[in-house]
Every structure is written in structure tokens, then in C-alpha cells.
Write a structure and sequence with these properties.
The protein has about 750 residues and is an alpha+beta fold. The protein has 29 helices and 24 strands. The strands form four sheets. Strands 5, 6, 7, 8, 9, 10 and 11 form a seven-stranded antiparallel beta sheet that branches. It is elongated and about 130 Å long.
């Protein structure tokens, strides 16, 4: 299975999106497909045994558009380009510049055209050779020659529009091409009638057609549509500012130690294992681990957290963060497209290019919208002709219907909101992997929280060691540390840290076994020992004896108790406490304010979990759950009709993250948990869950507003343009006003989406 992203040229509206999707989806081997109007791109997952990228490009070309597969390294190359001050001009920038030139030339030509065409009607003086019936042919020909450059410079509408029409896939360009072409052709017809009238002396015929030349209508349509598209594109560029800022964060060079010398090299040349020097004011070029020195690091660009984080030996560093004060050296652990920054950019791009389920309705309508509009325009013109109205009147009606119905706003309603929403989330340290996740977020009614590393710091420490009267505490600690050394459990680290603090050296063990959710077993000095919870002891028929009461008291106080036993009896216990994160209590409180049920799901003992429940105010506790049982507990909650978000950070949380309606991974957690989740919290705190849910509600509300106005605009605009209200209210929309209205609708949708960016809620 292969995934590729294609850049698509020639798309102008949601109808284009629908046609491209329809054409490509027919190919055998297509597994997943998403076409995005905002980014003019298409992401495809397909079976390489059935189809190739070149075949997909050919199919898109046959549909009337151009497709070019995007190189895999393109993003990394964009991030790590050599010159940080001079950015390579993108295709998007050049398109925007070309569009700007088109409307500027169009405006310059349109002003004298409108002056000649409409000046006499509003009492503005014109040159004598353009005045009067006898000079009508002069006026008409000059109007035609002034209008021609406007039609020529905006030829894209005609080439794309008529090509799509020929391929029976009409789009927005088709509507504009038909409307403006009809106006120009009628102008040529009017010139011929004026010429005939002058030659035959029929000046009534000359007067009739000299007032309805329509060159200015066609030229105005093209100018206003191009101006609207330019403003739309400018507004759209602001929706991706967050992504652009992320890309610009990466430094272009790194100061590394090579052959015992400090050497400044391009970031592209940094390799895993390189030793990199960072001084005050410098930006971290790649991810790494501190090996000497200390510094205060500003991580706000990636996490949104304004308070600098103190880093010292053993701490991890993220690319694109800034050393505010201090000096340190670190070993590169992730470079190129594996760095945190690159992964964030990739996730933001993928989420921005994806579609929310709510957009499917708009896509379905867009696929049939343009053919229906063309039919309405023809029928409306025919009806007015049959009612005895002049051909010029009927033509004006048809052109207005074609122009006002361009479905740009409909196609932009969803992607602009998604782009702004995911960009804002990224600046707040929240990575959203898909638009679907963004939409599901506002439906969540139950939040399930893992305990260790999610509610708590995930850095437990030993608070008490109790051994029997025959064994010193340090000897018990030595046995425990020896057993825990091969383990990856957070409790193991707490025990090993305590052993290191007390200068106790762990001994090698054999026959190491893990009992998930209960503990471990190993052989030390030819004797079998166990370390784990009461359930592990019970399963091995070992009585807690003198430690039963103390284990109960420590557990009730919120400690996790590690019982150490040989094959006959418990020989001691070690109490470990993992403190709550500073924001856990307030985060749970805010979840309640959002009317969310909060559930703690943990493998720890019930007494420990209930102690934390009392501290945080969590609604429900599900404790003593084995790793494989977490997914089943999520399933049970879903069977009760709940929409569940699971928040976790460990490998054992991955099945539950995937089972939940929405999986949220704590960013400091395991790579597997992050890969399994739909949302990643870079800041590793629960307050970000609140931020995400609020943002989700805001984005979906914005999408609904955009879709409503896009639909409402067309529902009202088409009847108005068709002249439905002409007899009763005298309302008739000229083609020029129709073009202006169409452009304004698209810009309005984009500006409405930008409100998300500046909303402080």
C-alpha cells in the first residue's frame, strides 16, 4: 500500500473537487482519496500492484485538470532550505502574483470601457466622434477593442471552463466562460445589426442595438470575478499562516563537534549521534538529549507554553525551541523529517488537507450543482422569451443565473475552517491528525483518563520501605532493584532511582517474567522472588501476613504498594507515590463545566484510584484493569451510547486509544501511543484537552455557519437572478451585480473562518 500527495491545477470550485474525486475513485486499487480545494491538492492511498502514480495523473488530466505527484522529501527540503532570509517563491505565490496582474490590467481597461458604454446614459460627456446615432458603430467597435484585452488576459476561465464542459464535467469556470462569452458574442451580433442599420438607413435599429452592446457586461464579469478570486486567495493565504510560521521556525545551520572542533554545518548535514552546541539566543536545530550544561528553553512555538523550561543532563530537547539563557551540548536523536517540528508540520498539513464528515453533503450537491445551474439559466431565458420579453432581457437573465451561481463559497465552507482550526490548535501545542477528529471532538460526552503519566506526573518516587525483622531495608531494596532493572514499568524507575540514591547496586537476575497488571518474577542467587501487587501474591498463594494492614493503610493514602516476596512469604514492601500534575484538578473541574463525564481507567489498585478520585472529583473509577482489558472497558462505555475520548500516554493504552471514538495521546508518552491516537497534546497536560474540545465546537459551528450562508446565498441568489421577483417587486439582477455578489460570498466565507484564529475563547 502506498500513499501520495498530488498537486492539482485547474480546480476552481467544489464541483471540480467532486469531478476529480469521481474520476480517480473509479480506478481499481484506490483505498482512500481526498481532494482539497483550499490547498489544491489530492491525497491518495492506493495498491501499487493495481495502479501507479502516473496512471492517477493521467486520469486527472482526462478529467480536465493537471496533477503532479509531490516528492516525499519536499517538505523537509522546504524546512531545511539553505537561505533563511530569502524563501523560494512557491507556485502559490506566483499564482497570486499572476492573478493580481490580471485584475489590475482588467481594471485599467474596464474604466474607459465603462466610460464609453455608460457615460452618455448618465450624462457624462464623451468625445464627439462617439456621440449620436451616426457614431454608434465607432462606439461599439472601440468598446470591443478595449474589452478584448480583458477577455484575453483572463483566458483561463475559457480554457478551463470549456474544456470541463466538453468533458461533461462543468465547473465554476464553465459558468463564467458561458456567461461572459454569451455577452461578447451578443456584442458582436449587436455590431453587425448596427452596421446593417447604418447601411440601410434604419436608425431605429441602430438606436435599439447601440444601447445593448454587452461588451462592458462580459468584461465587468471577468474583472469582478478575478478581483474576488484575488481577495479570496489573499484571505486563504492567511488561513495557513500557522503552518508557514512553523516551517520558518527551523534554523538553517547547526554548530556541531567534528574531529574535536566546532564546525557550523547545514541542518541537512546533521546526523543522529552528532554532538551539537547551543548557546543563549540560539534555536535548537534537531531533537536531542542533553549531555552537558543546562539552559532555560522557550518551547512556546511548539507547545504554546509561555514559561521557559529548565533543561539539564538527560533531558530531551525539541527542534525549533529557543535557548533563552544558558549553555549546553546535546546528542542528536532525531533529524530531518523525524524531528518534532517536521512531524508537527506533517500532521498539520495532513489534517488541513483532510475532510470532515460534515462536508460530504456539500460535495454531493456540488457534483450535480453546475449542470443544474446551466439548465436553470437556459430555462429561465427561454421562459422570458416565451413571455414576449426582448432577447436582450432574456440573455441578461441567463447570464446573471450563470454568474451568481458559481459554487466557490460552497467549496470553501469546510476546508478554510479546518485549515484555520488545525493551525490554531498547532500553535497551542495540539496536533490534530484529521478533520474527522476535529468534528468528533465536539460530540464527546465522556472523557476517559489513564492515571500514570496522564493525571499524574508519571515520575513516581519511593516514599517508604518496610522489610521484615530479618532483613535490612537496603537489602530489600537491592532485591527489588535487581528484579525491576529489566522492567520498563514506571514503578521500576522509581525503585532504581531510590537504589541509586542509596548507593545500592542491582544484581543480575535470570528467568525474568512479566505478569501484566500484576508484577514480575525473576531468579536472584538461585532463589525465585516476586515483586508486584496483592493480586500477584494471591495468585501464587502467598499470604501478606504482617504487611497486610500496612499495605491497606498506604494504599488508602494514595500510594502504590510494591510487595516483595519469595516463594513462601512476603518479605517486605516498597510504597511509591506519583504526584498529580499541577493542572489535573482544574482540568477535571473544567471538563465538568463542559458537562463531560470523567472516568479514570487504571491498572492500579482500587484504593489508590479512589484516593485520586477524591482529590480530583472524577465521576467514575475503573481500577485494577489489565492492559488488554482497557479496550474492553472503552467498548462497554460506548455500548451505553456514550461518545468516548480516551486520554493516555503508554504502550498499554494504545488499544484503548484506537477503540475510543477519539484517541488523545499525551505528547511525552510513547511513540506507539502517539501513532494510535487521533490527537496529540505536545504540552502533556490535561488543560489541552479542554482547549481541543472548545476549539472543535468552535470549528464545527463555523463550518455550519459557512455551509448555511453558502446554501442560503444560492437559494436566494438563483431565483433573484432568474427574475422570479421581477413581476411582483420589480427586482432584476444585472450580470455585473451578479458577478460582484458571487465574489463577495466567497470572501465572506473565508473571513468568517478567520474569526476562529482571533477568537480568544
Amino acid at each position: 500500500m502506498k500513499s501520495d500527495v498530488f498537486d492539482i491545477k485547474g480546480m476552481s470550485c467544489s464541483s471540480c473537487v467532486a469531478h476529480v474525486e469521481k474520476a480517480v475513485s473509479k480506478l481499481e486499487g484506490i483505498q482512500a482519496l481526498n481532494v482539497n480545494l483550499l490547498t489544491n491538492s489530492m491525497s491518495v492511498r492506493y495498491d501499487e500492484n493495481d495502479i501507479t502514480a502516473s496512471k492517477i495523473e493521467d486520469v486527472v488530466k482526462d478529467a480536465g485538470y493537471e496533477a503532479v505527484v509531490r516528492k516525499k522529501k519536499e517538505l523537509t527540503e522546504n524546512i531545511t532550505q539553505q537561505n533563511s532570509t530569502v524563501k523560494a517563491e512557491t507556485t502559490y505565490d506566483s499564482d497570486l502574483l499572476e492573478m493580481k496582474k490580471r485584475w489590475q490590467v482588467s481594471i485599467v481597461m474596464l474604466i474607459p470601457l465603462l466610460y464609453i458604454a455608460m457615460g452618455p446614459m448618465v450624462g457624462i460627456p464623451v468625445p464627439s466622434f462617439l456621440k449620436g446615432t451616426e457614431n454608434s458603430i465607432n462606439s461599439a467597435l472601440i468598446q470591443m477593442f478595449i474589452a478584448l484585452p480583458i477577455f484575453i488576459i483572463n483566458k483561463k476561465y475559457f480554457t478551463h471552463g470549456f474544456r470541463s464542459l466538453i468533458k461533461r464535467a462543468p465547473n465554476m469556470d464553465s459558468l463564467i466562460a458561458l456567461g461572459s462569452s454569451a455577452a461578447f458574442i451578443y456584442g458582436l451580433f449587436a455590431i453587425s445589426r448596427i452596421s446593417y442599420g447604418i447601411s440601410t438607413g434604419d436608425f431605429s435599429l441602430v438606436t435599439k442595438y447601440s444601447h445593448d452592446i454587452y461588451f462592458e457586461s462580459g468584461a465587468t464579469i471577468l474583472t469582478l470575478v478575478t478581483l474576488g478570486k484575488y481577495f479570496e486567495a489573499k484571505s486563504k493565504s492567511r488561513t495557513s499562516e500557522a503552518l508557514t510560521k512553523l516551517i520558518n521556525l527551523a534554523p538553517q545551520t547547526a554548530l556541531v563537534i567534528r574531529d574535536s572542533k566546532e564546525v557550523e554545518i547545514s541542518i541537512n548535514e546533521v546526523k543522529v549521534g552528532d554532538i551539537i552546541i547551543i548557546k543563549s539566543g540560539q534555536t535548537i536545530p534537531v531533537d536531542g538529549e542533553v549531555i552537558s550544561g543546562s539552559a532555560s528553553i522557550d518551547e512556546s512555538a511548539l507547545t504554546g507554553e509561555s514559561i521557559p523550561v529548565y533543561k539539564e543532563l538527560g533531558d530531551t530537547l525539541m527542534s525549533a525551541t529557543i535557548c533563552q539563557t544558558g549553555y549546553l551540548t546535546f546528542k542528536a536523536t532525531k533529524v530531518g523529517e523525524d524531528t518534532t517540528l517536521s512531524q508537527i508540520i506533517r500532521l498539520v498539513e495532513e489534517a488541513s488537507a483532510s475532510k470532515a464528515p460534515i462536508s460530504k453533503l456539500a460535495d454531493k450537491i456540488s457534483g450535480i450543482f453546475v449542470p443544474i445551474v446551466i439548465t436553470i439559466a437556459i430555462l429561465a431565458s427561454a421562459v422570458w422569451l416565451l413571455m414576449g420579453y426582448p432577447f436582450e432581457f432574456a440573455l441578461s437573465i441567463g447570464i446573471s443565473v450563470l454568474v451568481i451561481s458559481c459554487p466557490c463559497a460552497l467549496g470553501l465552507a469546510t476546508p478554510v475552517a479546518i485549515m484555520v482550526g488545525t493551525g490554531k490548535a498547532a500553535t497551542n501545542g495540539i496536533l490534530i491528525k484529521s478533520a474527522e477528529a476535529l468534528e468528533i471532538g465536539q460530540k464527546i460526552d465522556t472523557v476517559v483518563l489513564d492515571k500514570t503519566g496522564t493525571l499524574t506526573e508519571g515520575k513516581p518516587s519511593v516514599t517508604k520501605i518496610t522489610s521484615n525483622r530479618f532483613m535490612p531495608a537496603n537489602k530489600l531494596l537491592e532485591i527489588a532493584a535487581s528484579l525491576e532493572k529489566p522492567s520498563e514499568h514506571p514503578l521500576a524507575k522509581a525503585v532504581l532511582d531510590e537504589a541509586e540514591f542509596r548507593n545500592v547496586e542491582p544484581q543480575p537476575v535470570s528467568d525474568f517474567k512479566v505478569f501484566p497488571g500484576m508484577g514480575i518474577q525473576a531468579t536472584l542467587n538461585d532463589r525465585v522472588y516476586l515483586a508486584g501487587n496483592a493480586l500477584l501474591m494471591q495468585n501464587n498463594n502467598i499470604n501478606l501476613g504482617m504487611f497486610e494492614e500496612e499495605e491497606l493503610i498506604l494504599s488508602n493514602d494514595g500510594n502504590t504498594v510494591l510487595l516483595i516476596a519469595n516463594q513462601k512469604e512476603v518479605i517486605g514492601l516498597i510504597a511509591v507515590t506519583d504526584v498529580l500534575k499541577s493542572d489535573s484538578v482544574s482540568a477535571v473541574s473544567k471538563m465538568h463545566q463542559l458537562k463531560l463525564d470523567v472516568v479514570m481507567l487504571t491498572g492500579d489498585q482500587l484504593r489508590v484510584a479512589e484516593h485520586l478520585q477524591h482529590k480530583t472529583g472524577i465521576n467514575q473509577v475503573i481500577a485494577g484493569v489489565l492492559p488488554q482489558g482497557k479496550e474492553e472497558e472503552i467498548r462497554k462505555l460506548q455500548s451505553q451510547g456514550r461518545t468516548v475520548a480516551m486520554v493516555g500516554d503508554g504502550i498499554n493504552d494504545s488499544p484503548a486509544l484506537m477503540r475510543a471514538d477519539l484517541g488523545i495521546a499525551i505528547g511525552a508518552g510513547s511513540d506507539i501511543a502517539i501513532e494510535s491516537a487521533d490527537v496529540v497534546l505536545v504540552k502533556s497536560n490535561l488543560t489541552s484537552v479542554i482547549t481541543f474540545i472548545k476549539l472543535s465546537k468552535q470549528v464545527v459551528r463555523n463550518i455550519k455557519q459557512n455551509l448555511f450562508w453558502a446554501f442560503f446565498y444560492n437559494v436566494l441568489g438563483i431565483p433573484l437572478a432568474a427574475g422570479v421577483f421581477y413581476h411582483t417587486l420589480g427586482w432584476k439582477l444585472s450580470p455585473m451585480f451578479a458577478a460582484a455578489a458571487m465574489s463577495i460570498s466567497s470572501v465572506t466565507v473565508v473571513l468568517n473562518a478567520l474569526r476562529i484564529k482571533y477568537d480568544k475563547k
